[in-house]
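Input record (one chain):
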Amino acid sequence: MPAPSMTVLLHPDGDNLDSVLHARTARLTVHDPYVESAIMLRGQRVPLAANFTAGYGVWLARANFNRQSLRSLLGREGGIDRPHVYLMQPYDPNRRIIVMLHGLASSPEAWVELANEILGDEALRQHYQIWQVYYPTNMPVALNHAMIRRALGETLTHFDPSGQAPASSDLVLVGHSMGGVIARLMVSSTDQSLVQLAADHSRLTPQQIRRIDPMLRFEPFPNVSSAIFIAAPHRGTSVAGGRLGRWMAGFIRFPITVLEELAHTLVPDAAASSHESLGHIPNSVDNLDENDPFVRTAADFPISTQVRYHSIVAQANAEVALADSDDGLVPYRSAHLPDDPREISPCWSTMAYDGDEREYDDAESWAYGFVQGMRLCWKDWQPLLSTPQGQVWFRPIALLGEDDYCVDQDELTRTPAMRSELAQQIPPAVLDMHAHWLPLRLAVYQREVAKSMQPKVGRNDPCPCGSGAKFKKCCGAAADLH
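The corresponding structure, as predicted from the sequence alone:
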C-alpha cells in the first residue's frame, strides 16, 4: 500500500523533567506498529500508540477508485485492464492472508468498513494480514478468474519463493457479488465441461481452445483453507438478463490492449488488428445472466473438500419464503450453496502463557455466549438436554460456559491444556446438535413454504391438510425453531 502506517516517537534530550523541558535537541525514531507494540525506555516497557487505518484512508482518498472503477467497467481511458494485488501492510511471513475480491463496478473502497474492523481488532490483526485484489469488472468472468489466479500466485511467489512461510498456507478468500463467483471458482475444480462449452458456443477451433486451456480447466488454488461468499450470484440473476442489465451491458467495451492480447493468444501469427475478427465476446454482465451458458455450467463445479466455505445471503423482504427471496438483485437460490457438512470453525482466540511455547484454544467467552443464547429459549432445549446423548454434546460447552455446571468443574478446567482440549470437542458437538434439530427445521420450513403457496386460511377454518382439525390447532400452530 502506498501509505503504510507508522508510529513516530520523539525523544527529547535530558535525564529528568527539568532537563527535558530545557532541551534544545531531540531525536525521532520510526516504528512499524505491526511489528512493535511497545519499546523499552529507561528499563520500562512503554506501549506505543498506533493508527492502523490512517494509511488505508489516505490511500483510498488519493486513489480515486470511484471514477476509475467505473471507467474500467465501461472500458474507457483511465481504467485498468488487468488485476492488481494490494497489501494493506508490509508483508509478514507469519500472518495468515485474507484475500478480498470486490464485486461488479466496484473497487477496494467496497471493503473499507470490513478492513477497518479487522485492522482495529487486536486479536485479528496479530494473526491476519489483508490483501485486496483490484480487477477490471468488465472482463468475462473466466478471463478475470484466470488473471487473478496468476496475479495472486505471482505475488505469493515474489514474497515467499519457497512457499514455506505460514502466510502461504491457510489463505482465506472473501468475495462479494461477482468477486464471490470468482472466489468460488478459485476453490473449485472443473472437468471437460468448459472445453465442451467453448466448442459448442464459439467459433474457436480445437487448436485455439487448447491455447486458452488454463481458463477452461483448473484445480483449486493451492493452500486456501476458507472462503466466504457474500451475496454472490453463483447461478446468475435475472436482473443481468433483463432490460436494465442488457442496457448496461451495451455500454461495456474491452480495452484494445486486452483484445489484442487475446487475439495474439488465439492466433499468435496474426496481425495486431486481428482482434476485430474475434466476434462477440461475452462481458461480465452477460456472464451474470442466469441463462448464460458459462454461469450455468460453472455453478455445478465441485468445491475442494479441503476448503471450509460460508455464504452470507441477504433477504430484502422477510415476509417472502426464504427459498423465493432475494436481496434486491441476487436471488437466494443463486447465492445459497449447499451447507458444508464437514466441520464448523467457531470464532475464538488462542492464548499463550509465559514459559510455555504452545498456544491454547480459549473458548470460554464463546461457550458463555452460546449458553446465554440457549437460555433465551431454555425450555425448548430440554428435549435434547434430557437425553444421555444431548448431555454428552452439551458437556464441553457447559464446562467452559456455565458458572456452576458440576461439582468437579474447577478440576476439569484447571489448566490451559484441559480447557483447550474441551474447546476441541465443541465443533463436532455443535454439528451433532445441528443434525439433531435439522429434521424439525426442515419440516417447519417446508410447511412455511406450503403455507405461502396456499390461499389465506382463517384460524378457525378447517386445516387444508385434511386432518379435520382447525387450522390454528394444526398447521397454523406456532412453530419452535432451534
